[in-house]
C-alpha cells in the first residue's frame, strides 16, 4: 500500500484521527446498510467536490474561495439528494435529514480547502476517494458492530440499497435474541467509535515500538 493511500485510510483517517464528520458517522450507523449508504454518498460528494474545486482553482480568488466551495458542495449534495430520492427512495427516507446535512460535513470542506484547491484534478479525485473511503469504512464498521450487538442481525434491509438481490444477504446470526438496546441508541455509536479509536491507537503504539 502506497504512503498516499495508507495516510488517508489509516494513519490520518478522517474519522479516527481527525474526528471529522462525526454527526452522520454516529447518527446513521445503527445498521450496516444505513452506514454503507451514507458512506457511499459521502465518498461521491467528496470526490466530485474535490474535482470541481481543483478545476476552478486557477480562476478562484482567495477572498471568495470559502463561499464558493460551500456553494459547490451544496450543489453536489442537492444533485445527490435528488438522485437518491429518485432511485433509492426508501433508503433516502431512512437517512432523512442527514443527506442534505452532508453539506455541513467538515471532512468535505477540509479536503477542498487543504488539498483540492492546491493540486491537479486527478490527484484531487484520488485524494477525495481514499479520504472518503477511510471515513466510509469506519462508519460501516460501526454499523456492523451496532447492528450485530443490538439486533443480532447483519445487513438487514439490504434491499434498500441493492434491490431484490439484497434479500439474499440479510442474515440473522442470533436467533431468539432480545437485543441490546443501547447498541442501537446514540450512546452505542460512541462506544463503537471508542473501540475503533482504541484499536487504532494500539496499532500505532505497537508500530512505533517495533521501529
Automatic annotation (TrEMBL):
GO biological process, one term: electron transport chain
Subunit annotation: The complex is composed of six subunits: RnfA, RnfB, RnfC, RnfD, RnfE and RnfG.
Family annotation (PANTHER family): ELECTRON TRANSPORT COMPLEX PROTEIN RNFE, ION-TRANSLOCATING OXIDOREDUCTASE COMPLEX SUBUNIT E
Described function: Part of a membrane-bound complex that couples electron transfer with translocation of ions across the membrane.
Name of the protein: Ion-translocating oxidoreductase complex subunit E
Entry keyword set: Cell inner membrane, Cell membrane, Electron transport, Membrane, Translocase, Transmembrane, Transmembrane helix, Transport
E.C. number(s) listed in UniProt: 7.-.-.-
Keyword Transmembrane set for record: yes
One of the record's GO cellular component terms: endomembrane system
Gene that encodes it: rnfE
Protein's UniProt keywords contain Transport: yes
Residue ranges crossing the lipid bilayer per the database entry: 35-56, 68-88, 94-116, 128-145, 177-199
Enzyme class: translocase
Compartments in which it is found: Cell inner membrane; Endomembrane system
Bilayer topology: Multi-pass membrane protein
Protein family: Belongs to the NqrDE/RnfAE family.
